[in-house]
TrEMBL record:
<dbReference type="InterPro" id="IPR036505">
    <property type="entry name" value="Amidase/PGRP_sf"/>
</dbReference>
<dbReference type="GO" id="GO:0008745">
    <property type="term" value="F:N-acetylmuramoyl-L-alanine amidase activity"/>
</dbReference>
<dbReference type="GO" id="GO:0009253">
    <property type="term" value="P:peptidoglycan catabolic process"/>
</dbReference>
<dbReference type="InterPro" id="IPR002502">
    <property type="entry name" value="Amidase_domain"/>
</dbReference>
<feature type="domain" description="Peptidoglycan recognition protein family">
    <location>
        <begin position="24"/>
        <end position="168"/>
    </location>
</feature>
<feature type="domain" description="N-acetylmuramoyl-L-alanine amidase">
    <location>
        <begin position="38"/>
        <end position="177"/>
    </location>
</feature>
<keyword id="KW-0732">Signal</keyword>
<dbReference type="InterPro" id="IPR006619">
    <property type="entry name" value="PGRP_domain_met/bac"/>
</dbReference>
<feature type="signal peptide">
    <location>
        <begin position="1"/>
        <end position="17"/>
    </location>
</feature>
<dbReference type="GO" id="GO:0002376">
    <property type="term" value="P:immune system process"/>
</dbReference>
<dbReference type="InterPro" id="IPR015510">
    <property type="entry name" value="PGRP"/>
</dbReference>
<dbReference type="GO" id="GO:0008270">
    <property type="term" value="F:zinc ion binding"/>
</dbReference>
<dbReference type="Pfam" id="PF01510">
    <property type="entry name" value="Amidase_2"/>
</dbReference>
<protein>
    <submittedName>
        <fullName>Uncharacterized protein</fullName>
    </submittedName>
</protein>
<keyword id="KW-0391">Immunity</keyword>
<comment type="similarity">
    <text>Belongs to the N-acetylmuramoyl-L-alanine amidase 2 family.</text>
</comment>
Length: 281
């Protein structure tokens, strides 16, 4: 009798155990026939607190398994052959067939936005979303994927979502398209820029802001108060930037970085900023 009761209780426990990860139809790299990366760089720390949303723009949307696999392969080939990246640039991709495709996965650095590749997970909706939104299947898959990341402790519970265009200087990109941009801004975890009537905008937290954003802000509006930005003391030693005889370390202010050569700016943008108390443009 005791064994029957124990089995029954175990059944009840399993029946009521629900995971967002179970909601995802997930396609591994092997499943979509990924090429091998030419090199691998792991994330320096986890869990992460940011997601950066993209759209693929070209190729177009996909609605069935065969075409979505074809699209993901095309994106990887473009990134490796034309962009000279070591692998597909995103951590994960989402098709309008409702499936999530493994890019670089939970543990590796990506290549989707300078200054964010080691500090945020990049998710790409396959298709062009300037004038239309991803369908409900794709949006539900993305939300379940984010929840799954929290459950598996790859993502903090108090995470933020931003779009590609918000991760860089104004005018850098229109990604993820105007319609998807507005969709993402409606999400509870979305960071909204503080302008217009967005009085309930969610501010980015201090200590987790890419230096590329600080440089963008300084270049656009705030050169007179640039000294309020300082790079994090916890910045790994490997992120010290050497430009000729000039060294920028974790104690350097952004003021010292304003005139660095354009071809070196992306290196410096990998640092993290603390004491970031101004609204981002």
């Amino acid at each position: 009798m005791k064994s029957i009761v124990l089995v029954y209780l175990l059944f009840i426990t399993v029946a009521h155990s629900h995971s967002a990860c179970d909601e995802i139809s997930f396609v591994t790299r092997i499943g979509w026939g990924a090429r091998e990366p030419t090199s691998i760089t792991n994330l320096t720390s986890k869990p992460l607190s940011f997601f950066v949303v993209h759209h693929a723009e070209d190729p177009p949307s996909c609605y069935d398994d065969e075409s979505c696999i074809e699209r993901v392969r095309e994106i990887q080939i473009f990134h490796q052959n034309s962009q000279d990246w070591v692998d597909i640039g995103y951590h994960f991709l989402v098709g309008e067939n409702g499936k999530v495709y493994e890019g670089r996965g939970w543990d590796r650095q990506a290549a989707y936005s300078p200054g964010w590749n080691n500090d945020a997970y990049g998710i790409c909706f396959i298709g062009n979303f300037n004038t239309s939104s991803p369908n409900e299947k794709a949006l539900k898959a993305a939300h379940s994927w984010i929840k799954c990341g929290i459950e598996r402790r790859y993502v903090t519970k108090d995470f933020y979502v931003i779009t590609h265009r918000q991760s860089q200087r104004p005018g850098y990109t229109t990604c993820p398209g105007d319609t998807l941009f507005n969709v993402v801004r409606s999400w509870p975890q979305a960071y909204k820029q503080k302008n217009g009537d967005e009085s309930k905008s969610r501010s980015l937290p201090a200590k987790i802001v890419a230096l590329s954003q600080a440089l963008s802000s300084v270049a656009n509006s705030w050169k007179d108060i640039v000294n309020s930005f300082k790079t994090s003391r916890s910045t790994p030693i490997t992120r010290i930037i050497r430009l000729g005889s000039t060294h920028f370390d974790q104690r350097s202010t952004v003021l010292k970085a304003i005139d660095i050569p354009a071809n070196k700016a992306s290196e410096f943008s990998n640092a993290i900023v603390i004491d970031y108390n101004l609204p981002l443009k």
